[in-house]
Amino acid sequence: xxxxxxxxxxxxxxxxxxxxxxxxxxxxxxxxxxxxxxxxxxxxxxxxxxxxxxxxxxxxxxxxxxxxxxxxxxxxxxxxxxxxxxxxxxxxxxxxxxxxxxxxxxxxxxxxxxxxxxxxxxxxxxxxxxxxxxxxxxxxxxxxxxxxxxxxxxxxxxxxxxxxxxxxxxxxxxxxxxxxxxxxxxxxxxxxxxxxxxxxxxxxxxxxxxxxxxxxxxxxxxxxxxxxxxxxxxxxxxxxxxxxxxxxxxxxxxxxxxxxxxxxxxxxxxxxxxxxxxxxxxxxxxxxxxxxxxxxxxxxxxxxxxxxxxxxxxxxxxxxxxxxxxxxxxxxxxxxxxxxxxxxxxxxxxxxxxxxxxxxx
Length: 361
Fold this sequence. Notes:
Number of helices: 10
Radius of gyration: 22 Å
């Protein structure tokens, strides 16, 4: 019991410190991951420049954030992780970057073919990793708008990032002739890959549990969706689509009694016939991949995308979705994916969250 108490205190303090930094963790992950990949591919030829170029290469697909300066909010949602996260983008840009790099670093000993490998691998790994969370990634743009979402990771997971971060710091401090540089980079990449595989195995367990629960309860449904809750892969958020709405619930890998309790939300499709911007409405329906509800909040029409979770949903009877958009007041919709994610959280809430992760209700 004493051990559980100490572990709880560490986790609560860690989550409390980390949550305000959540929006930066995704970028940090790509930076340190790219640096380790750069070291593994080109460290021998480029020295510590491989870390810098790797970090830069890994973040190239996120140049699409520049679109937010001129695109309307709903159009920006679709543009992000769109074409710059496509396989075609990687295949078109990599040869250009390889040719430029071969000229700029002609004395490095890197061949044009190895430069091509360097840039292509970095960009492809970025778009591959991004497909593991709920946002969706446009691998097949512009030929298909279908978004790939494996839903096995939260958008920022510290246990995925910590290994390449440690390796990056070691490689940054050690001399370029340090004989274990490649070892550190490969170790970090191996541990992150193992964590990714673990997240996939946990999702399979949760998906099987959900399907079995629905079968045991003789519930009819068209499809269901599962994704991890913030910063972990133990507690999962579940959305079950039914004829006119959705049932949402939570399940932890550590639950001793895996029977799930759901609360139901009507889709309220008829509300979307109210006056609002038609383009915004169409963009949001497409972005949500069909997991949405509409509601009137303070006499304002609100669109909820259910994929991003609920505000303290594991402890509230009727939680509010994290993602909500005011259809009749588009100017009030800045940072709509982030704004509700940690609303109402404090140390007491974190403690209850850790308790629920442990399978305690």
